[in-house]
Design a protein that fits this description.
This protein is an alpha/beta fold and about 260 residues long. It is about 30% helix and about 25% strand. α2 packs parallel to α4. The chain starts with a strand and ends with a helix. Belongs to the SurE nucleotidase family.
C-alpha cells in the first residue's frame, strides 16, 4: 500500500512522527509512506490553497518533503509533483495536536488536507489527539493515537465505505480522547457536535511599540457537545469516527426553500 501523509502543525511536529508510525504499520514492510507537510505551522487554515502565489518545496529525506503551503497544498504537491502521478491508496492527515471535533472541524487544516484528498478521489482520514490534564502528564501525549490509530484506520478501511461513485466522496474524521492509551474505551461512530456558548473570538493587544494588534482566541475545549456527538464521547474516553463530505448544501432545507420561493 502507498500512503501519503500530511498535517497542519508542520513538518517537525511530534504528531506527524506519530502519524508516520501509524502509516508504516498500515502500509506494511512492502508498502510506501510518503510525507509532504507544511514547512511552517498552518493550524486554522481550513481548506485554504495557495491559488494566487507559488510555493517552494524541498526534499528533506527519502520520501520526506516540506512545502511552503497549507495541508491542502501539500496534498496537491504530493499527488502532482512528488509522486508524479503515482496515486496513493490512502491519504492520512495529522495527528493534530488538539481536537478537531465540533466546530473546530470547520477551521482545521488537518481536515482540509483530508478533504482535498477526497476531492481528488482518494480515500482519506484526518486524525487528531484531544489534549487535556491527563495527556499533559504523559511522556508521550499522543500515546492514545499511537496505540489505537492503526486499529481504527484498519477498521475504516475494512468497512469499504467510500462511495467512489459520489461527486463528493466521503472522508473520515477521527478524534482520540484526552486520556492515556490504557484508558481508551474503544471507538464509536458519532456525528459532528457543536459547543454552545463558546467559540473563537478576537482579543486586542498593544505591542511594545504602541501598535494595536488582534489575537484570535479559541474557546474552552472541554465544553461537552450534545450527548453522542464527537466531542462529548471524546470527553467520555471514546475515539470518535465521523464520516464527512465536502458538500455544504443544507439538503434538509431544500424543499422548504423551494416552497417559500415558488
Amino acid at each position: 500500500m502507498r500512503i501519503l501523509i500530511t498535517n497542519d502543525d508542520g513538518i517537525n511536529a511530534p504528531g506527524l512522527e506519530t502519524l508516520h508510525a501509524i502509516a508504516q504499520e498500515i502500509a506494511g514492510p512492502e508498502g510506501e509512506v510518503w510525507t509532504v507537510a507544511p514547512a511552517f505551522e498552518q493550524s486554522g487554515v481550513g481548506h485554504c490553497i495557495s491559488y494566487s502565489r507559488p510555493m517552494m518545496i524541498a526534499k528533506l529525506d527519502h520520501r520526506r518533503f516540506a512545502a511552503e503551503g497549507s495541508p491542502a497544498d501539500c496534498v496537491l504537491a504530493g499527488l502532482y509533483d512528488v509522486l508524479d502521478g503515482a496515486r496513493p491508496d490512502l491519504v492520512l492527515s495529522g495527528v493534530n495536536r488538539g481536537n478537531n471535533a465540533a466546530e473546530n472541524t470547520l477551521y482545521s487544516g488537518t481536515i482540509g488536507g483530508a478533504m482535498e484528498a477526497a476531492l481528488q478521489g482518494i480515500p482519506a482520514m484526518a486524525l487528531s489527539q484531544f489534549m487535556g490534564p491527563e495527556t499533559a502528564e504523559l511522556t508521550d501525549p499522543f500515546e492514545a493515537a499511537r496505540h489505537h490509530g492503526p486499529a481504527v484506520v484498519r477498521a475504516i478501511l475494512s468497512s469499504n465505505l467510500w462511495q467512489p461513485e459520489a461527486d463528493y466522496r466521503l472522508f473520515y474524521n477521527i478524534n482520540f480522547p484526552p486520556v492515556a492509551a490504557a484508558s481508551v474505551k474503544g471507538h464509536r461512530v458519532a456525528p459532528q457536535g457543536f459547543r454552545r456558548d463558546t467559540g473563537f473570538s478576537a482579543v486586542p493587544q498593544i505591542s511594545p511599540a504602541g501598535r494595536r494588534f488582534l489575537w484570535i482566541k479559541g474557546g474552552p475545549q472541554h465544553t461537552p457537545t450534545a450527548p453522542g456527538t464527537d466531542a462529548a464521547i471524546n470527553l467520555e474516553g471514546w475515539i470518535s469516527v465521523t464520516p464527512m463530505r465536502a458538500d455544504l448544501t443544507a439538503h434538509d432545507v431544500l424543499p422548504a426553500l423551494e416552497a417559500a420561493l415558488a
